[in-house]
Amino acid sequence: MGVDQLIRQEILGITPYVPGKPIEEVQRELGLEQVIKLASNENPLGPSAQAVQAAVQALTEVHLYPDGNCYLLKEALAAHLGVEPAEIVVGNGCDEIIKLVAEAFFRPGDEVIVADPTFGEYAYATQLMGARLVKVKGEGLAHDLEKMAAAVTPRTKAIFICNPNNPTGTMIKRTALEEFLARIPRQVLVIIDQAYFEYVEDPVYPNGVDYKGDGRVLTLRTFSKIYGLAGLRVGYGVGDRELIAYLNRTREPFNVNRPGQLAAVAALRDQAHVVRSLEVNREGKEQLYQGLAALGLTYIPSFANFILFATPYPASAVFQALLRKGVIVRSAEIFGLPRQIRVTIGTRQENERFLTALATVLEELKGGGLA
Length: 371
Ligand SMILES: *Cc1c(COP(=O)(O)O)cnc(C)c1O
Prior knowledge:
The chain is an alpha/beta fold. The protein has helices at about 10, 25-30, 50-60, 70-80, 95-105, 120-130, 145-150, 175-185, 240-250, 260-270, 270-295, 315-325, 350-365; strands at about 35, 90, 110-115, 130-135, 155-160, 190-195, 215-220, 235-240, 305-310, 325-330, 330, 340-345. The chain binds pyridoxal-5'-phosphate (PLP).
C-alpha cells in the first residue's frame, strides 16, 4: 500500500501555493544580476533600521525559546490599537491566523464564503479542514457584499472579507460593511483581512477593530506589508476575548519567533518609517497609473501597495517576458484572471525599470500572434 492510500482526501483538494519568485532563483536560472521583485507586495524601502537592530539583538538570545505569550508585542499592539492584550492573537504571519481560524472552527460540511478573486489562503485553510468553499464573483472584480450575504445558508460557518482586496486593490466602505454585518446571522464568523490597512488613506475606509465588540468579527493585520518584515513572519488578529482565547488554545506554544517579536515591537515604534513608506507608495502609485495609461493599459484604481492591470496578451507570456528582463511581477492566472498582472508599487527607480521593460515586452509580443 502506498501513501496515496493513506493521504486525507482534503489534502488532495488543495492547490499548492505558488509564491512570488525569489530574486535569487531568477538570478540563478536566468543568469541575471539586476533583478527586481514587484511580486509579493513587500515594502520596497525594506524594514525599519530600528526593527533590524532589535532583531539582531534578539539573535544573541535565540538559544532561548521565544515568549509563547508574545507579552511585549501584545502590550505594544494593545496601546497602539486601543484594545486589551487579551483581545489580540499573534501568529507566524497573518497566514497562520487564517489557518488557526480554520482549525478552531471549520468542519466538514461547513460552508465558507469568499470573494472571487481574492487572497488564496482562505481557500487553502477551508479545504485543509474539509469545509466547502463558496466563491462569490462581484461586479468589476470587487467584493459584492449583497451577493455574499445572499450566499449565507444554515451551513455557513464563516465569511472572509479582504479589505483592501488582494489582488484587486479594491476597498469596501464603512457604510457598506456595516450594512453587511447587520445582515449576517449571529452564528457566522466574519474575518476582515486588513493586511494593507496602513496604506489606505480614504476617510470612508472602516477599521475592523471597531467591530470587535460584535463577538464574531476577527480583524487581521500584518507586519509583512508596510512594516517591511515579511521574512520574519509576524501577523495578528484582533477580536472579542473569547474568540481570541479559542485561537490561542489552537495555536502552537512558540509560534512566533524571538527576532520577529522584538523587531515587530521596534517597527511599531518607528512610525516615521511607516509615513515614509506611505509617501513612496503614494508617489509610486501615480507614476504607475500614468505609465500604464501611456501604454494603453487599463488598471483598477488601488487602495493598497499593488496594482492589477489588464494586458492584451496572456498574463503568463507577459510575466515570462518580464522575468527575462529581470523584473518579477505576479501573473494573476492563479487568481483565475488569465490576462491580468499584479504589480507591487516599488521605488521610483523600480517602477521606471518595470514600465520600460513592460513597454519593450508589449512591443515584442505584438509580433508574436498571442493577442
Ligand atoms: C500578504 C497578505 C497576508 C499575509 O500576511 P503574512 O502576515 O505575511 O502571513 C494576508 N492577507 C492578505 C490579503 C495579504 O495580501
